[in-house]
User: Fold this.
Amino acid sequence: MKKSAIFILCLALIVTMIGCGGKTSEEATPAKETKADETKAAQGKTYECEDFTMTLASDWEASPQTMGMVNVLPKGKTSPGLYFKFEGKGNAVGTAETSINTMINNYNGSPMESATIGNVEFKSTTYAYSGMTQTMCVAFREGTKITITLEGVGAKDNPDIKTMLSTVNFK
Assistant:
């Protein structure tokens, strides 16, 4: 149950990051104390772009939204990563299930799971691509395909990624 909740939070953050344009506010979200089994509060700046907003974890940064994509990474590192991609802009065709089943079949992905990120239901699978563990989450919203990818060993369970995904708000 905890793993499902964490996965859902991660997916929400990924979706949010994909659509952002790279604007940040100077306001920080106050930290809150948590128990060992809870995710910590995001403590970074608010990230806002064309398609979503989210609070970045401390020591993480997001790229400006370019061609529908946003990359969220720890400062100075390339992994773990959170990647958002928005495709179709009102004209996307297909289903989340079809997209995820393709990844399951082509990359020996884990069984499909459901997760909610930013009040949007996503379908997801975890697989290895070029030796890198990835969890892909896909949703279709108002004719736009939203893909959130968590990349790197432990990315799916990373507390910063989980917390960031929990703050995603789609526009």
